[in-house]
Model the fold of this input.
Amino acid sequence: MRVFGVDDFAVERGHHYGTVLIDRENHRVLDLIAGRDASPLAGWLLEHESPEVICRDRATSYAEGARTGAPDAVQVADRFHLWQNLATAVERLVAKHKGYLTEESTAEAAADAEVAAEPQGAMAQRCRSMLRAD
Done:
């Protein structure tokens, strides 16, 4: 296994969580671990073949567990968090420069937005809901 994914999942939302371990190349669930702590992840990694890449969220416990259990693996952010980081950066940039927009440029942008199709899918919906929440 070269690329390994780590993420949390809710057994009972708000009360009990677990960790799912995924072979990202074969899209197979490898194992489920109780809790979201570093030590069970590190232990699991030490007992199995060490991956080259660990794809994870920003949880410090997963970073620590990966460092301990697979010290030579490269840790990268998962796709959802990359998109979330990009959306946050774009939102901050637009907010910082919104004073430079004129009514004319705003009208042109609105006309262009009407022509462009609205992105669809789960990721687009999540991004829209995150932007609305702020």
User: Anything to note?
Assistant: Strands lie at 3-12, 16-23, 28-34, 53-56, 74-77. The chain has five helices and five strands.
